[in-house]
From TrEMBL:
Stated name of the protein: Serine hydrolase
Gene3D superfamilies given in the database record: DD-peptidase/beta-lactamase superfamily (3.40.710.10)
Domain Beta-lactamase class A catalytic: start-end pairs: 17-257
GO biological process, one term: beta-lactam antibiotic catabolic process
Entry keywords, A to Z: Hydrolase
Keyword set includes Hydrolase: yes
Gene Ontology molecular function terms on file: beta-lactamase activity
Highest taxon of source: Bacteria
Pfam family name, one: Beta-lactamase2
Organism this protein belongs to: Glycomyces algeriensis
């Protein structure tokens, strides 16, 4: 299916895939091309964390101290002014609902980075690579730019001392050197989530349903569709994966990853939603 008609006029390009949750049928456009995950990686972190809770390896009420050394800036505990103490479960909730990067770091630290890295192989996702939490990716960017640490990186970024071109040449923008997947692998993972162990799947769905940022794919969706999503962004990249549940019982896993060359992000987000609708029509037509 050719989706260029939605993106080319906007100076953008995209890869996308849709998969029926029930029977696994799918269709897409460039769906096996590698893409950077950015905050979409938090969906994998949430699944592994909730699975470890279910297995009894993590106490969800375990208190975690969040200090200045943990804060990356942004939403949730990442932007707190003062030190705080919060349960690891609530950190996972903040990670998913407000895309809290520091919460994601602390959840990964609690459950073990090795468990995250090994997750794709355990699920049979051959085109997915998970290297670490947000801090791991930012530390790699600092090394790429020959900057001493994350505090220095924050000052450099705030001062605008690094050009957009220099940033986009770092590992965070390169699917061969950062957390990466494909649109097809992402819909396969979403199908695994929806069909997984009921208590685990229910909580991950609940977190996805409460995401306060994103909603790109559902911009133009019919009102009766119930969307669950996880988005991610970097300058020049707009990502979202989602599951749409229809009143007639259909459930579609959708992934759209867009590369943007202009400042027309809202228009590209609408194109992402148009692409999601077109994929839905294509999948239903093939029944």
């Amino acid at each position: 299916m050719d989706l260029d008609r939605f993106f080319a006029p906007l100076g953008a390009k995209a890869t996308a895939h849709i998969r029926d949750i029930a029977d696994g049928r799918g269709t897409g456009f460039g769906e096996t091309e590698p893409v950077i995950l950015v905050s979409v990686v938090k969906l994998f972190i949430a699944w592994e964390f909730r699975s470890q809770v279910e297995a009894g390896r993590i106490d969800p009420a375990a208190p975690v101290r969040v200090t200045a050394a943990d804060r990356l800036g942004g939403t949730g505990v990442a932007g707190f002014r003062y030190d705080s103490q919060i349960s690891v479960w609530d950190l996972a909730s903040l990670m998913m609902e407000v895309s809290d990067n520091s919460a994601a770091d602390l959840v990964v630290k609690h459950m073990g980075a090795g468990a995250l890295r090994s997750l794709p192989a355990r699920l049979g996702l051959k085109d997915t690579r998970l290297l670490g939490a947000p801090r791991t990716i930012l530390e790699a960017v600092a090394r790429d730019l020959d900057i001493a640490d994350l505090e220095a990186l924050a000052h450099v970024l705030e001062a605008g001392s690094v050009t957009t071109a220099e940033l986009r040449a770092t590992s965070a923008w390169d699917p061969m050197r950062t957390n990466a997947s494909t649109a097809a692998d992402m819909t396969a993972f979403l199908r695994h989530v929806w069909n997984g162990p009921a208590p685990v799947a229910a909580d991950v769905r609940r977190w996805m349903g409460r995401q306060l940022t994103g909603g790109r794919l559902s911009r133009l969706a019919p009102s009766e569709v119930k969307p669950f999503g996880r988005s991610g962004s970097l300058p020049g990249r707009l990502n979202e994966v989602a599951v749409w549940e229809w009143p007639d019982g259909r459930r579609h896993a959708i992934a759209v990853f867009a590369q943007v060359t202009r400042g027309n992000f809202r228009e590209v987000e609408l194109a992402m939603s148009r692409a999601a609708l077109a994929l839905t029509e294509e999948l239903d037509a093939g029944q």
